[in-house]
Design a protein that fits this description.
InterPro entries: TumE-like (IPR045397)
Structural class: alpha+beta
Number of helices: 1
Strand order of the largest sheet: 1-2-3-4-5-6
Helix content: 10-25%
Strand content: over 45%
Protein name: DUF6516 family protein
Length: 93
């Protein structure tokens, strides 16, 4: 399965905080997902990943908030990024 990298970005929020976006287009869906994307969206504070959205093989689309993990519904990339942005803003308050 050959993946095509669409985006890989790291943005610094402040001296102790950054977020990363990694997104690939795949010829077939990752097992557990229904769309042709592989992604990882992560918020890191003081070296700890406090928020992550990803679609791990077999687990499908899900998010990690601290130590808690829960399934999410993927509808569009735009909705995924919006949800991550909302959770990121909430986590940084």
């Amino acid at each position: 399965m050959k993946a095509t990298l669409i985006e890989k970005t790291r943005r610094v929020v402040n001296d102790t905080t950054f977020f990363e976006v990694a997104l690939w287009h795949l010829p077939d869906a990752v097992p557990g997902s229904t769309h042709p994307f592989k992604y990882r969206l992560a918020l890191v504070v003081n070296g700890d990943c406090i928020l992550r959205y990803d679609n791990e093989r077999g687990k499908g689309d899900h998010r990690h908030i601290g130590d808690h993990e829960e399934a999410i519904e993927f509808t569009t990339l735009e909705a995924l990024f919006d949800a991550f942005q909302t959770d990121m803003e909430r986590a940084l308050k």
